[in-house]
Design a protein that fits this description.
Layout lengths: L18 E3 L6 E3 H14 L1 H10 L4 H18 L4 H4 L3 H19 L6 E3 L8 E2 L2 E2 L8 E3 L10 E3 L1 H7 L4 E3 L13 H9 L7 H33 L2
Antiparallel strand pairs: 1-2, 3-6, 4-5, 7-8
């Protein structure tokens, strides 16, 4: 059983999880067994399971748990960063919380994620006219502007040479299909809680911790999926 199958068991309109065929056993897994398996996965891989559920908007509690657990990891990791180690405890905690929140937001992004339009301050209007950037909606999709969320774009030179469309990973979004959160946005948020971290220190050191926390979420999700697969064999 994969983590992607978890979503339907949290949706009240989905089919009842009474029977699920196990790929490794002739027996069926009952709904009670599935709930028990999810509970065991949460216990063994709390961060990965919570992060996935939070990303899929299954509950607000999962998002809060993810940020809390990720903050604890960030605090332990911060001892390797002199710029953070020299901060007072309360200030360092505030910075790590900011990093953990933005790490989760980046991890949970998809092409369909809606973002406030900065051109019109989410009002939908600019200088008395409908905002041309968001079309008056006040919100915009995070989908890459070049590949429109597909993750692939046409290689113009090879397409012209071969006479058929040749696709490549989108250069703008690196094949993700959506734009990542700019590090400048996170740095601006960090500056709201401390003035002890300069732009140079951010670029050379602290920004690396943000990247570590994002990658940690992906590693933990894979770890949770491995546990769930083993439990539901």
């Amino acid at each position: 059983m994969k983590l992607g199958s978890v979503v339907k068991y949290h949706c009240p309109r989905s089919a009842s999880p009474s029977v699920v065929s196990s790929p490794c056993s002739p027996d069926d897994i009952s709904g009670t067994d599935i709930m028990a398996a999810l509970g065991m996965t949460l216990r063994r891989a709390p961060l990965g399971y919570s992060a996935f559920c939070g990303k899929m908007n299954l509950s607000h509690q999962d998002k809060e748990r993810t940020v809390r657990l990720l903050t604890a990891i960030g605090l332990n990791r911060s001892v390797f960063y002199p710029a953070l180690r020299k901060l007072v405890d309360s200030e360092r905690l505030a910075v790590i919380r900011v990093l953990a929140n933005y790490a989760f937001l980046d991890y949970a992004r998809s092409p369909d994620t809606e973002l406030p339009c900065h051109a019109c301050n989410s009002t939908g209007w600019k200088k008395g006219k409908r905002c041309s950037k968001c079309g008056g909606k006040g919100m915009m999709r995070a989908a890459c502007k070049d590949c429109k969320g597909r993750g692939q774009s046409v290689h113009r030179l090879k397409t012209q040479m071969q006479g058929v469309p040749v696709y490549q990973h989108c250069q703008r979004c690196a094949g993700h299909g959506f734009e990542r959160i700019a590090s400048a946005v996170v740095f601006s948020a960090v500056c709201q809680v401390t003035e002890s971290i300069s732009q140079d220190t951010w670029n050379k050191s602290v920004k690396q911790l943000l990247a570590f926390l994002i990658s940690e979420l992906y590693r933990e999700e894979a770890w949770a999926e491995k546990h769930l697969s083993v439990i539901t064999k």
